[in-house]
Amino acid sequence: MAGPDAADPTPGTEASLRLHSLSYSLGITAAITAAARLELADALGDQPASVRVLASAVGADAEALGQLMRALACHGVFEETEEGVYAHTELSRLLRADAPAGRRAMALLAGAPFAWNIWSRLDEAVRTGRSVFPDLYGTTLFAHLHESEPELGRLFDQAMAKSGAVSAVAVADALDLSGTGTVADIGGGRGTLLKALLERRAGLRGVLFDLERVVAGADPALRAGGDLADRCELVAGDWNTGIPVKADTYLLKGVVHMWNDDTAADVLRTLARNAPAGARVVLVEQVLDATRTPEIATVMNLLMLVSQGGRERTSSEFRSLLTRAGLEFRGITGTGGAAHLIEAAVPAAP
Ligand SMILES: C[S@@+](CC[C@H](N)C(=O)[O-])C[C@H]1O[C@@H](n2cnc3c(N)ncnc32)[C@H](O)[C@@H]1O
């Protein structure tokens, strides 16, 4: 067992302590996921509460909950206002079930058993350059979520829709759709971004393309009987077998980073095959050399690798990828947030 030296292995050496702390940062993921599972943020109201009161509200052992609260508060998730009494902070409020941005759902996914399993084999993914998911689960991440862990699948869709609602505003502000009659969102999830775009432009038509189960749960405004249904087509499909969608502008938000370059080039070619000449293809992704938050961008880069064999990319890597897929690279613009618009056009047939 680790003795006291494990807590302070080389006293006085800042670098050593920093590395030690980083090595055990998995404990922070575990603590945040535990807080989300225990629904601690919902149990604590606007007034501070003692650990004892919280423990009885969430059905936990008071002493153990004290250990958890101490670790969380050390990172600004809850705050100890007096001994054994905790209050909300800006961060802990984000873990409430009704908070915007879907951070609770993200926290549950970040520490889900499948996530621990894949992260534990990161070295293997680095050796092979491939996702470890198929070896572990015999299928891809999305097939697994949809077929074997539907609860987590729903959580994923919910996390995407909620976090997407925040970035959709910035993307819709930055995206110039003049000259576009129909916009298609490929892998558009429940249609959060598409809805934001249709709400902004009265004459605009939209197509939402995603897996059948996801499209079936599209935002009610886009489904039959919804306010925007007459301007929106829902297309269920699998981009590996075809993308039968005609539009002037194709959006792929948070999609291309799930793929390695070979897959990305293949799927973009599939998309272009059906698209009219001159159609715009706009990827919405973070850009590694333009990000202001490299700590999370570089971790996402690894998560894409280990979970799906994908990757985040630099500006020049996006340019090469789009060119390799036979598209004409047009440029990259920021949205003010992490997302960038990486734009290309479908060339006229030779
Ligand atoms: C990372 S999510 C992005 C969702 C949305 N664009 C956003 O930014 O919130 C990827 C999306 O791709 C969809 N997807 C995954 N595999 C797919 C496939 N083979 N064909 C079509 N859609 C797929 C997922 O269902 C999911 O909605």
What descriptors fit this protein?
17 helices; three-stranded antiparallel β-sheet; 350 residues; Rossmann fold; binds S-adenosylmethionine; Arc Repressor Mutant, subunit A; single chain; alpha/beta; 2 domains; seven-stranded mixed β-sheet
Unreliable spans: none
Structural class, judged by helices and strands?
alpha/beta
- Strands of the largest sheet, in order across it? 6-5-4-7-8-10-9
Distance linking N and C termini: 68 Å
Find the CATH topology of the largest domain: Rossmann fold
Could you walk me through the main structural features you see in this protein, from its secondary elements to its overall organization?
The chain is of the alpha/beta class and 350 residues long. It has two domains: 95 residues, Arc Repressor Mutant, subunit A (Orthogonal Bundle); 231 residues, Vaccinia Virus protein VP39 (Rossmann fold). Helices cover 47% and strands 14% of the residues. Helix 15 links the parallel strand 7 and strand 8. Helix 4 packs across helix 5. It is globular. The mean pLDDT is 94. Bound molecules: S-adenosylmethionine. The site of S-adenosylmethionine (SAM) has 15 residues, from helix 12.
The gist of it:
The protein is 47% helix and 14% strand. The chain is an alpha/beta fold and 350 residues long.
Helices and strands in order:
Elements: H1 14-23, H2 26-38, H3 40-43, E1 49-50, H4 51-58, H5 62-74, E2 79-82, E3 85-87, H6 90-93, H7 103-110, H8 113-119, H9 122-128, H10 133-137, H11 141-147, H12 150-174, E4 182-186, H13 192-200, E5 205-210, H14 212-216, E6 232-236, E7 249-253, H15 261-274, E8 280-285, H16 294-308, H17 315-324, E9 328-334, E10 340-345
Parallel strand pairs: 4-5, 4-7, 5-6, 7-8
Antiparallel strand pairs: 1-3, 2-3, 8-10, 9-10
Helix pairs in contact: 2-7, 4-5, 7-12, 11-12, 12-13
